[in-house]
Structures are given as structure tokens and as C-alpha cells.
Amino acid sequence: MKLIGSLTSPFVRKVRIVMAEKKLECQLVLEDVWANDEVQKFNPLGQVPCLVMEGQDSISGAVFDSRTIVEYLDTLSPVGKLIPGSGRERCEVRTWEALADGVLDAAVLVRMERVWVHRKDGERSQAWIDRQMGKVHAGLQAMEQGLGDKPWCSGSHFSLADIAVGCCLGWLSFRFPELDWRTPCPQLARHFEKLSGRPSFQDTVPQG
After folding, report:
1. Share in percent of the chain as helix, strand, coil (round to 5)
2. Is residue 87 very low, low, confident or very high in pLDDT (cuts 50, 70, 90)?
């Protein structure tokens, strides 16, 4: 398999961490989706991450969207099961992932509104930025309350919920260094520090 992605995308990082935790081998192919359209050969949406199956060279041999990819990867090896098989536990883990990804979606929209070169300064909307940042803050508070003093986001062990939250917090620290989320969210800060000590997180710190 090969994973098309970048070293800055939190969604690519989520997939890479899952692969590391599952001890799955995969070739990482770096792609700048803003500089070329090569990834559209496999993902018509032109987004990363995109997982291409071994020996495949077309859209029919690819899996895209990080949530779909990690769910597939979790089935490939019994090592370190990250998503419960069914029931309320599975729903809880996927809800944590949706929350973390939703915070990222809002933060990405803020970043694009601020820095996208094809939008002139007079065309940038502070009202839009404020609306998206409201989602970021609300999402972080929901994570803080949901985590509380528990050792893990969901259940009694490390799961995809923790990976998604860790990738979210790591990207916010990377792209929004001025955002002090640690002070109002001390439990999240504690959890992030713990997650950051895992080799899978250390080996995938955002770069660029």
C-alpha cells in the first residue's frame, strides 16, 4: 500500500499514527495538493490522505477520507484494536473522532480564510473567522468535559478517540501557536502531553 499525504495534514497524521500503532507497513508519498492535481488520479476530490492499494493505479484501487481509511486499517491486523466492534463503545469512539475532526475542519477554514493567496485582504471575512473559531472553542470545551479525569477518552484503554484528539490538539499547536487552549482545558493539556510521549506521535510531529 501507499499513502498519499503531507507532513502537515492532521488527517494524514491520524492515518500514519494508526498504521504505526497497528504495525502496518506503508509507503508515504508526499503530495502538495495546492501545487498540483496529481492526487486526483486516485481521489477526485483532490484531498489527502488517500490510501492506494498495492498494485493499483486508478481511483477504483483507492480509499479516501481519513475516517474511512482508519476503519479499514483497523481490520487488517488484530494488533492494538483501536475501534470497538459494535455497540455503544464503538459509537463513543467514533463520536470522539467526529468531534476532533470537526474542530479541525473549522480551524482549517479559519486558516484558509486568513492565508489563501487567491483571496484579497478586503475579501476576508472576520465574521466568518469568528464563527468558525466559536466552533473550535466549543469543541475543545466539549473534549475537556468529556475527558475529565479519565486516563483515556473512551473506555479503559488507548483508542482511535485518543489518536483523533491528539492529532487535533497537535495541529492547533502547530498552526495556531497564539491560541492558548491549555489554560482553559488543563485535562486536555495533560492528555496531550501523555499522548505526545508515544513513539507513533513523536514520529509524526507536523512539519512544514
Report:
1. 55, 5, 40
2. very high
